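FAQ

Q: What does a record look like?
A: Structure on top, sequence underneath. For example:
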């Protein structure tokens, strides 16, 4: 049976055009001229997909999208919505994606691109029904790419990845260091239709400022001293695939301007060249600070921010999704037991308790490192408390530390040891109190960051 598409547009010529184009592809097409009419139609029969203009008198396309999604959720139905936006109105595309649109197309569009977007949205819908079924089968153990974790926060991340993986939509991944931003970027690429294209990663913070543009956009022979042959640049190297811009906040302002232009025009001009080259690249950017703050203080361009932030994936710190810890622990124990050819098959409940209670200032990376170390050192078949580093055990034990004596014991008092133990205890408490944020912990102890860090190292508390 042909899938039904409902077209909503207040412009007659556009309705006619879309009706012809989509019918020719074998879809059953209804057209209406307002959001209000669309809602009436939906009440009678649900289409598989709604394609709506954004700017309409009366209810606009965004309001229609929200209403349709709310009604669909209430009645347990699936409907995909694609919005049609005017050229250059990135903000509205962002709002639409955030409200649950499957995709957006920019006017003027080319027919092939529009049909591709429609087909993908419909395919995804079929897949999603299948996914819900599969997901309930695997329960508890749900992976996406190489990502482990079934907390609510991670389920939301998987959901976002699923929604964008088969599109060219740019996305921004934010999260503290070690939360898995790069793993997510790879999952977006390797699970989607671009997987056969290249995945090119660039760390914007690691390239000298004066080389960023030639690295990204390439150069032609003779463009500057030392340029003795043409170089393609990373943007073109990622053609047909994904360009991963890590630490995007470090991108110099001049390069931001050029990048924005390249994204708008889908073309790049190599340094020293007068010819533009077409590129088809999806950008995935990552940042361990909120990019919005960089926009606020003027170090990141707002227009580029909007281009990148069409979809934002936020990875919460591990301490805020403690539900993921046991699953990650088991995953890493299995993985490293194999790597180190160990017979480890379980984790003692005490060790698991400690691992669950720790605050992981270094997030998943820290957990992974400490399991690797524990597995490498472990002698038996079970991972135990003793296999965990002191700083992890200490963080829990701190509250239970032996109180200092109030009188001289008969054998005398080792003042150095006593003060050291006390100092260590307060360092750990400050770290706990500030959820692993060293700057705040230093402030709590009225010391400079530098001196705090020195003491952490002294007591083997640094990660
Ligand atoms: N959900 C996860 N499941 C499995 N492994 C994970 C997960 N999240 C992170 N990791 C592992 O933790 C390590 C750190 O992840 P990643 O490099 O993606 O972090 P990041 O957010 O990019 O950190 P940074 O900001 O320091 O670059 C990697 O080795 C990765 O394999
Ligand atoms: Mg990273």
């Amino acid at each position: 049976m042909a899938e039904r598409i409902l077209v909503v547009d207040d412009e007659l010529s556009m309705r006619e055009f879309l009706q012809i184009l989509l019918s020719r592809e074998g879809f059953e097409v209804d057209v209406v001229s307002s959001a209000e009419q669309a809602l009436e139609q939906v009440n009678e029969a649900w289409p598989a997909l709604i394609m709506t203009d954004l700017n309409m008198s009366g209810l606009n396309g965004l309001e229609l999208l929200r209403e349709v999604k709310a009604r669909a959720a209430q009645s347990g139905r699936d409907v995909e919505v694609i919005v049609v936006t005017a050229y250059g109105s990135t903000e509205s595309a962002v709002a639409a994606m955030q409200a649950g649109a499957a995709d957006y197309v920019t006017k003027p569009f080319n027919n092939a691109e529009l049909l591709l977007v429609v087909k993908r949205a419909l395919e995804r819908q079929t897949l999603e029904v299948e996914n819900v079924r599969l997901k309930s089968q695997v329960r508890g153990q749900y992976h996406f790419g190489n990502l482990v974790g079934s907390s609510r926060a991670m389920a939301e991340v998987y959901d976002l990845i699923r929604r964008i993986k088969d599109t060219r939509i740019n996305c921004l991944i934010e999260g503290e260091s070690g939360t898995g931003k790069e793993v997510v970027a790879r999952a977006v690429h390797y699970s989607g239709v671009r997987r056969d294209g290249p995945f090119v990663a660039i760390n914007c913070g690691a390239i000298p400022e004066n080389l960023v543009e030639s690295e990204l956009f390439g150069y032609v022979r003779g463009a500057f001293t030392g340029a003795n042959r043409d170089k393609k640049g990373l943007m073109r190297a990622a053609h047909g695939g994904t360009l991963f811009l890590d630490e995007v906040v470090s991108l110099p302002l001049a390069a931001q301007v050029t990048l924005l232009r390249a994204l708008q025009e889908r073309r790049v001009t190599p340094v020293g060249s007068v010819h533009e080259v077409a590129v088809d690249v999806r950008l995935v950017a990552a940042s361990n600070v909120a990019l919005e703050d960089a926009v606020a203080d003027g170090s990141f361009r707002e227009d580029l921010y909007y281009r990148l932030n069409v979809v934002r994936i936020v990875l919460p710190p591990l301490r805020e999704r403690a539900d993921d810890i046991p699953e990650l622990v088991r995953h890493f124990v299995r993985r490293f037991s194999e790597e180190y050819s160990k017979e480890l098959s379980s984790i003692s409940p005490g060790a698991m308790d400690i691992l669950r209670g720790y605050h992981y200032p270094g997030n998943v990376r820290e957990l992974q490192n400490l399991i690797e170390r524990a597995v490498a050192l472990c002698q038996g078949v079970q991972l135990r408390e003793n296999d965990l580093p002191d700083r992890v055990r200490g963080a829990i034990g701190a509250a239970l530390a032996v109180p200092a004596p109030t009188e001289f014991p008969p054998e005398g008092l080792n003042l150095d040891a006593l003060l050291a133990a006390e100092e260590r205890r307060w360092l750990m408490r400050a770290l706990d109190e500030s959820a692993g944020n060293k700057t705040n912990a230093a402030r709590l102890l009225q010391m400079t960051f530098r001196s705090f860090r020195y003491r952490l190292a002294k007591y083997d508390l640094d990660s």
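Q: Is there anything notable about this one?
A: The first helix runs from residue 12 to 24.
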